[in-house]
Amino acid sequence: MSFRCAVLDDFQSVATTVADWSPLAGAVEVVSFPRHFGTEGELVAALADFDIVVTLRERVAFPAGVFARLPRLRLLIASGMRNSVIDLAAAERHGVTVCGTESSSVPPVEHTWALLLGLARGIVPEADALRAGGPWQSTLGVDLHGRRLGLLGLGRIGSQVARIGAAFGMEVVAWSQNLTEERARAAGAALAASKEDLLATSDFVSLHLVLSERTRGLVGAAELALMRPTGYLVNTSRAALVDQDALLAALHAGTIAGAAVDVFDIEPLPAGHPMRTAPRLLATPHLGYVTEANYRTYYGQAVEGVQAFLAGSPVRRLG
To answer: Mean pLDDT, to the nearest integer, of 254-261?
Structure first.
């Protein structure tokens, strides 16, 4: 075989079975790595003998230095069509083609509601108590009907979250810097007067924004202080939208009722990270995109991407 393909961060060891890789048989050797490479040195050492790499979302950074140290690399395929941790200009300088795949917005929408409902009904502490022989009913659930859901961001994912909120009988309001009343109304939401007003008046706040210099740290200590003591924050978008230290401080102080997060400043989350033990926090290991259908798309289109590259006609190029 003249080509070798590495599949990174295959934590569930399903990448090579959830999609059909047989079209590459005889031409490409596919090797799946079920563990994360925590340092640039480990990554470069592991990938030194590979021509093709398939990477998952934005977990593994490919800065200029990595491309410089991987002279054999010729094709990098990332799941999704947006990736902020790949230096596309450096890839081009080093002769590496970078391609993406489609990605469904349905799984993160569903996971947002799994987390929000988990918070509202105390699912985790009640389930843990039941298994451990603890108290029978120890929490008092929060009704969604009639409560206000505030959405920071009303794009492809946020608008779907809004429609589900309306189906629960919630009052849905939304805000982003460029959001108009017309666009908000089309998604079944009202336009909040301001970000501050949304935070101060919502019972649940959920973030659905693209990370940029404009949105980084959008919710910090001052914004969290505006929230009601009975309010909940949900973040399934990007960790850096929220000041992590400020969120931890609010959770420990009890100035908000709780939070649910699926994204972190470091992933995978180190064993001793304070997010693992914070009170009033429902945390999941970035599961928003992790579904069978999404993985079939990611890896099925990765196979297509490798085939197209080898045929001299790359598809879904990034940059």
So the answer is: 98
Q: Would you kindly state where each structural domain of the chain is located, as residue ranges?
A: 3-103+291-310, 106-283
3-103+291-310 against 106-283: fold identical: yes
Read off the pLDDT of residues 71-109 as tens digits, 9 standing for 90 and up: 999 999 999 999 999 999 999 999 999 999 999 999 999
Instruction: Place domain 3-103+291-310 in its CATH homologous superfamily.
Output: NAD(P)-binding Rossmann-like Domain (3.40.50.720)
The residue from 29, 110, 267, 304 that is catalytic is 267
Cis peptide before 135 (omega within 30 of 0): no
Which residue in the list 57, 111, 208, 238 is annotated as catalytic?
238
228 burial level (CB within 10 Å; 0-12, 13-18, 19+): middle
Which CATH number does 106-283 carry?
A: 3.40.50.720
pLDDT band with cut points at 50, 70 and 90 for residue 319: confident
d(CA 303, CA 23): 8
Strand order in the sheet with 28-32: 28-32, 3-7, 52-55, 75-78, 97-99
pLDDT tops 60 at residue 1: no
Q: Has 286 been annotated as catalytic?
A: yes
In the chain the first and final C-alpha atoms are separated, in Å, by 30
pLDDT at 2: 84
d(Cα 249, Cα 270) in Å, to the nearest integer?
19
Q: 238 an active-site residue?
A: yes
Q: Which of 111, 148, 208, 286 is catalytic?
A: 286
The model's pTM is 0.94
Instruction: Categorise residue 13: left if φ over 0, alpha if ψ from -120 to 50, beta otherwise.
Output: left
pLDDT for 110 equals 98
Tell me the two tokens of residue 99: 């391609």
